[in-house]
From TrEMBL, chain A:
Entries under Pfam families matching the protein: ABC_tran (PF00005)
Gene Ontology molecular function: ATP binding; ATP hydrolysis activity; transmembrane transporter activity
Gene3D superfamilies in the cross-refs: P-loop containing nucleotide triphosphate hydrolases (3.40.50.300)
Residues in ABC transporter domain copies: 20-257
UniProt signal peptide: none
Protein name per its UniProtKB record: ABC transporter ATP-binding protein
From TrEMBL, chain B:
Name of the protein in its database record: ABC transporter permease
Gene Ontology molecular function terms on file: transmembrane transporter activity
Organism: Streptomyces mesophilus
Keyword Transmembrane: yes
Family of the protein in this entry: Belongs to the ABC-4 integral membrane protein family.
InterPro entries: ABC3_permease_C, Macrolide_Exporter_MacB
Main location: membrane
């Protein structure tokens, strides 16, 4: 579906201003009576250079949303478009190749390879994709995240905050259209969490990347430009320029009125 | 802590399958051969039959037991090492090192006892079959009844238990220590001890008469001990092999090969546990098959036995040696399976970093290739030491006249088994979605 020819042309979605678009994406787990509908026809559109937090109570489907959008899970129905290109339903190898150029990840548990050094972990996605390794570029990304002095360290020699910063460098080095972050501060202390959030913010404001972050923490969400609320697998609201108090307030009353269709209509999808 | 050990076995039987299987198979082999001692001791067994049985039990049963000891120990070491995360978790929840040790060793005892107990009935049939083979070849009188008694049971349980407990004890001690990179002093000591003992055992061959019945024992013991020594030293040998093979691996396996080289440098200690059964298999197969070939030719040439008898004797000996070689091969598969199946999380992380399933397989394949080259080279070396000693004493030549056929077959099987098992297991692991694979807890 998405051969290498298209890979070259639409790499980072420079042809469109839309970084991510979901159209009526649904996903269920389990079968029959015990089936759980984790995502129920979610539609969403995010522009390039935006920083969006996805929030909701446990079980609201936020992680499923991120995994479907990032091509880690295949939705049951609906369309996912990254940088104007539709994500196919091909084999894992095809999906992997699609993700390589368009998507970067930051996970709560870092998922760095323990046998590789900081520098090797950072350039691994380029290596796997068979792309040219620009050492100077890799170093500058690591400098940007404040790890220039630790290139030869291995993950187990770093603190949690430092590991997450390596993960961010790894996500940014391929210059993806969208960076997905799944609870990136979930395992960190307050100070490291703040550093990580500043870095994600900087990636958007200074380097023009697009970041989608799943979190349950109103403080983390307040670093984003906008917040999308999820409840019971549907979009339950939207907030621009969030503040900690406003987000916490909205989260507390999320169960009161679940009205996802308004937001979808407002986006025009 | 023992209750916790029991619960952890009951909750996750799959995790113990590999160790249970290796204790079972080990005990089966030991009991089968050692029941020949019991049979020889039975009433009304003529001298010639008793001698044949005793020689079979003490020569093959003897080095077989030593082999089982190391094979079981290496599987268990792999299994315990994989649980370092769980051990860490127990430590953080307040378990003292002594409690953790009791749990791991307790589990090993339970699994070894179960494995040995399960092996009793099959070993009775196995012993009967082995006796039938001896009787069919006329080496043992047809009137001799198979007996499965104290010697078979005692050796079966003792050796299996000793190997399991010993390995669990050493492995948990290592896992309990903070993550130090340097190989322990104990390891170096054991490595030297095994090499010295192996060299002594091989040299002992020269002290024997050229037609002694137990001629094959010292070189076989020697080959096993030298193999163990080499496996323990392989943490230092592997980096050297890697630096030589780095170019070809990266050229052939691409980014997968890049990961292989980095991975193997860091995981040399774990890999040496996988190398142990591989070196043992190669060493044992090469040594015993060539020695048997030399023995057969010498018997034939001596003209002491009729041609037809020589033929039966040959078949018999190959059957006995074949059992041991097949055991080594199964243990190799078992260890490789255990070692690879625990890597599902690592594979998941690689896939999340952008590796396609094919690249992960290429990495595993390249890794197995390096292991095969190293293992077959070292195994051939240790086997060769035994062969040269045996051939020199038994005949007036230094090298056996069997040609390279056996060696090529052994190397071929080693390569197929190592690469095949690892890649098939990895391929199965790849069916777990990457996100789930990294979320799988210890």
């Amino acid at each position: 579906m998405f051969g290498s020819k298209r890979d070259k042309t639409g790499a980072s979605g420079r042809g469109t201003d839309e970084a991510l678009r979901l159209v009526k994406v649904s996903k269920s787990y389990g079968e029959g009576e015990s089936a759980v509908r984790a995502l129920d026809g979610v539609s969403l559109s995010l522009g390039r250079g935006t920083f969006t937090a996805v929030m909701g109570p446990s079980g609201s489907g936020k992680t499923t949303l991120l995994q479907c959008a990032a091509g880690l899970e295949r939705p049951d129905s609906g369309i996912v478009m990254v940088a104007g290109e539709e994500m196919g339903k091909g084999s894992e190898a095809e999906l992997t190749k699609f993700r390589r150029r368009r998507i970067g990840f930051v996970f709560q548990q870092y998922n760095l390879l323990p046998t590789l050094t900081v520098a090797q972990n950072t350039v691994l996605p380029l290596k796997l994709a068979g792309r040219r390794i620009d050492k100077a570029k890799a170093r500058s990304v690591l400098e940007q995240v404040g790890l220039a002095g630790r290139l030869k360290h291995r993950p187990d020699e770093l603190s949690g905050g430092q590991r997450q910063r390596v993960a961010i460098a790894r996500a940014l080095v391929t210059e993806p259209a969208v960076v997905f972050a799944d609870e990136p501060t979930g395992a960190l202390d307050i100070r490291s969490a703040r550093d990580v959030l500043h870095l994600l913010q900087e990636a958007v404001r200074v380097h023009g990347r697009t970041v989608v972050m799943v979190t349950h923490d109103p403080v983390a969400a307040s670093y984003a430009d906008s917040v999308v609320f999820l409840a019971d697998g549907r979009i339950a609201g939207h907030m621009e320029r969030p503040t900690v108090d406003a987000v916490a307030e909205r989260l507390a009353h999320l169960g009161d009125d679940i009205n996802g269709s308004d937001y979808a209509a407002q986006l025009g999808v | 802590m023992f209750a916790l050990a029991m619960r952890s076995i009951r909750q996750r039987p799959g995790r113990f399958a590999a160790t249970l299987f290796s204790s079972f198979l080990g005990a089966l082999i030991i009991m089968t051969f050692n029941s020949m001692h019991d049979t020889a001791a039975g009433a009304g067994v003529d001298d010639r039959s008793a001698e044949t049985l005793t020689v079979a039990a003490s020569v093959v049963g003897g080095y077989g037991s030593l082999l089982v000891f190391f094979a079981v120990a290496s599987t268990l070491t792999v299994a315990v090492r994989q649980r370092s995360e769980e051990i860490e978790l127990l430590r953080t929840t307040g378990a003292t090192p002594a409690q953790i040790k009791r749990m791991i060793v307790g589990e090993a005892v339970a699994v070894a006892l179960l494995g040995a107990a399960l092996a009793v009935v099959p070993a009775m049939f196995g012993g009967q079959l082995l006796l039938d083979v001896f009787q069919d070849s006329g080496q043992v009188a047809g009137s001799v009844e198979h007996s499965f008694g104290a010697i078979a049971l005692a050796t079966g349980f003792d050796i299996t238990l000793l190997a399991s407990v010993g390995a669990a004890f050493l492995a948990v001690r290592r896992a309990g220590r903070a993550a130090g990179r340097r190989p322990g002093r104990g390891r170096t000591f054991f490595a030297y001890a095994a090499l010295v003992a192996g060299a002594l055992s091989v040299s002992a061959t020269f002290l024997l008469d050229s037609d002694a019945e137990i001629m094959m024992a010292p070189p076989a013991y020697g080959a096993i001990l030298l193999s163990v020594g080499c496996a323990l030293f392989s943490t230092r040998i592997l980096p050297g092999v890697l630096s030589v093979l780095e170019g070809p691996i990266t050229a052939l396996a691409g980014a997968g090969g890049y990961l292989t080289v980095r991975n193997m440098r860091q995981r040399a200690a774990q890999l040496s546990n996988v190398l142990m059964p591989l070196i043992l298999f190669t060493g044992m197969a090469v040594a015993t098959l060539y020695m048997q070939g030399v023995e057969n030719d010498t018997v034939k040439a001596s003209g002491l036995v009729k041609a037809a008898d020589a033929k039966t004797l040959e078949t018999l000996n190959y059957a006995v040696v074949g059992i041991i070689v097949a055991f080594c091969c199964i243990m190799l598969i078992n260890t490789l399976y255990a070692a690879t199946s625990y890597r599902v999380r690592e594979f998941g992380q690689q896939r999340l970093a952008g590796a396609t399933p094919r690249q992960v397989l290429a990495m595993v394949g390249a890794e197995s290739a390096v292991l095969t080259v190293t293992g077959v080279a070292l195994g051939s070396l240790t086997g060769f030491a035994g062969i040269v000693a045996f051939t020199t004493v038994r005949t007036d030549q230094v090298l056996p006249g069997q040609g390279l056929g056996i060696w090529l077959a052994v190397a071929g099987i080693a390569a197929t088994v190592t690469i095949g098992t690892s890649m098939a297991t990895a391929w199965r692991q790849l069916r777990t979605p990457a996100v789930e694979a990294v979320a799988l807890a210890a």
